[in-house]
Write a structure and sequence with these properties.
- The chain contains three helices and no strands.
- It is 66% helix and 0% strand.
- It is elongated, with a radius of gyration of 15 Å.
- It is mainly alpha-helical and 92 residues long.
- The termini are far apart.
């Protein structure tokens, strides 16, 4: 594996972990908002993972292309999808 593929894979793992933690934080009711005994009081925030998954599929195309600008674009897409998913989730 060349360095670009390793960087892209590490980026997908780290941004995926961040998206999962942010999703679970909001879906479980954030801080002090969970007054019920339910685990997930706001399941609409799982949309963040869907948006991140779509961007991860787009970013995984980088494995087949070895161009440097597309590497930076795929890194930007995966990290920008998290705030976009949060904004979409808040609209529900």
């Amino acid at each position: 594996m060349n360095k670009r593929k390793v960087i892209a894979l590490i980026n997908l793992v780290i941004s995926g972990f961040a998206a999962l933690m942010i999703t679970l934080f909001f879906a479980e009711g954030a801080i002090g908002e969970n007054y019920t005994d339910k685990t997930f009081v706001a399941p609409e925030f799982f949309i963040i993972l869907v948006v991140w998954g779509i961007s991860a599929i787009i970013a995984s195309i980088q494995f087949f292309k070895d161009t440097l600008p597309f590497l930076f674009l795929s890194i930007f897409i995966t990290w920008a999808s998290i705030p976009v998913g949060i904004m979409i989730s808040f609209s529900f």
